[in-house]
Amino acid sequence: MKKNIYLSAFLLVTSFIVNAQEKPLDVKYRRSSLHTMVVETDKFPKKEVVLNAFNNAPFPEKYNDHQIGVKSFNPNNYPLTNEEKATIYKQSKLASFAKSTAGLGTDSLSKELPLKIQKYLAKEKIANQLVAKWFNRQPDGSFDAELIAERGIFNASYLELKSAESSSDGNALLKTAGFELIDNTFVVINKFNYVANEPIARAIRDAARDAAKDTPALLLDKVNKGIDATYEKTKEGYSIWATSYLYKLVWDEVTANTFYQDFYMEKNSLDPKKKLAFDNSDLFKLEFVGEESASGLVTFSLTEKRTEDQIIELSTIRIVDNVYAKLQKKYDVFKTKTPLFTGNPITAKIGKKEGLEGGEKFEVLEMNQDPKTGAITYKNIGTIKVDKNLIWDNTYNPTNEENNSTPSIDRTTFSGGSKFYPGLLIKQIK
Fold first, then answer.
1. SS3 content of the chain, % helix, strand, coil (to 5)
2. pLDDT band at 29 (very low <50, low <70, confident <90, very high)
């Protein structure tokens, strides 16, 4: 069975190689794959604008688009049992107070959502769907290696191409793909809230006034004026909140071997039992990696050229980029590799959208392939640092109305030596 898989992959590989020899490839690299979703929460101001902004936003270019069709789910359809609720709720005065504070991250939905997401992922077999997409599963239950071969070659250096060319059965491609492509498949589930600032500012003002009521009379008026001034500064506009939950597809040796042995079949070897077994299998899992949140202030001005909806759209997309950047910084498994654009000066096509502020350190990686096994390894050959004065502002701006000109900087510059060259990969260090 495996030989048939490898042979299919090899035939696809050679077709890509022929084309690549006719026209040299740019520097490519194997990227992680990503499926994104949004939680269908209760109504909030400008909900449709926020959700449409998310759904229509450019897909993160550092990842392969691995969308499986479904873009949202309603957590109310996956209620928790009393036993499940008991694991997350502890009765206390602090918990009661938190539940009453504007619903920002401490409401019942936020507390229960991680468990509801797990129930949703399991019941709807999202992991199965991700695997099915990797192997281009058809309605009859058959698989092929076309997508794996395409991504493995399209995101490959010339060295990898030559190695695959000399391979006798395509084993190197699938071995590398299995643990470098499929094993780096992620799901990010996003929850949004859009909150008017005035009620929150008013509550803070009233609480501050109440706390200051025992202030000596000579000082009370001055204190209250300061409280009112703070209220006036913070009451305008809205705040957009985004919380993103990160999950990773489990693709270990046991899972891979079981898949090839029990479920994999091609068009010429259909087996209804294997089709049914895959449909009902609980083998495939998504493991929780972590979560991050980000927020942004949305204000409107009479001098603003954009419409109110356009401002909300812009803020939403930038906040999503921000929370993704936080996930990448915090969790090594989700960090992306980026090729150097130039070696002298040292530059790369990343910037403020990826959370760069200046001084961040990146390891420089040289990709090597074993000529016998085809296995890919990455060797650390140095460290570079972001120049805070030469950071590319690549944050989302669909119309470029802010400057009406081509940006003076279209890449970020690093310091750290002169031995590096275009195509080497860089990965941020904590």
1. 45, 20, 35
2. low
Q: How far apart are CA 415 and CA 413, in angstroms?
A: 7
Per-residue pLDDT of 39-58, as tens digits, reads: 988 777 788 888 888 888 88
For residue 43, tell me if it sits in a domain. Answer: no
* 3-class secondary-structure state, position 36: strand
268-297 pLDDT, tens digit per residue, is 999 999 999 999 999 999 999 999 999 888
- Does residue 34 sit in helix, strand or coil? strand
The answer to whether residue 399 is domain-embedded is yes
Fill in the amino acid letter for 350: I
**Within a domain: 202:** no
pTM tops 0.90: no
Helix residue ranges, H only, 290-378: 308-330
Indicate the Cα dihedral angle 273, 275, 279, 284, nearest 10°. 100
The CATH code of the domain that includes 344 is 2.40.10
Q: How far apart are CA 200 and CA 237, in angstroms?
A: 11
Q: Where are the alpha helices (DSSP H) in 31-157?
A: 47-56, 82-86, 93-99, 108-123, 126-134, 146-154
Report, as an integer, the average pLDDT of 193-219. Answer: 83
Query: What residues make up the domain containing 358?
Result: 337-430
C-alpha–C-alpha distance, residues 263 and 281, integer Å: 9
Distance CA(408)–CA(377), nearest Å, equals: 36
Number of compact structural domains in the chain: 1
